[in-house]
Design a protein that fits this description.
about 0% strand, about 80 residues, mainly alpha
Length: about 80
């Protein structure tokens, strides 16, 4: 959620590596925040807002593993609503 923010940190870490250890390929990134904004334009689309919209428990939000689990559920809901 908000992929450019996280990608900047990941890129920074890759740039610290020796060139021989850096990834040799590009990766495709899905930004769920951009996706949510296209499905629900003008609405609040923070992860907490989407969890409430899809009746998902926000317990444990902002822990990396819990955020990833919730985001997977949000993504599936967005695919359903975005069709």
């Amino acid at each position: 959620h908000n992929a450019p923010f996280d990608i900047a940190f990941i890129d920074q870490e890759f740039n610290l590596l020796d060139a021989s250890l850096q990834p040799k390929q590009n990766f495709r990134v899905e930004d769920t925040l951009a996706f949510a904004r296209s499905v629900f334009p003008g609405d609040a689309n923070r992860l907490q807002d989407l969890c409430r919209r899809f009746s998902l428990s926000c317990e444990g939000l902002h822990g990396a593993l819990q955020d990833a689990r919730l985001l997977a559920q949000v993504y599936l809901n967005l695919i359903f609503f975005g069709i």
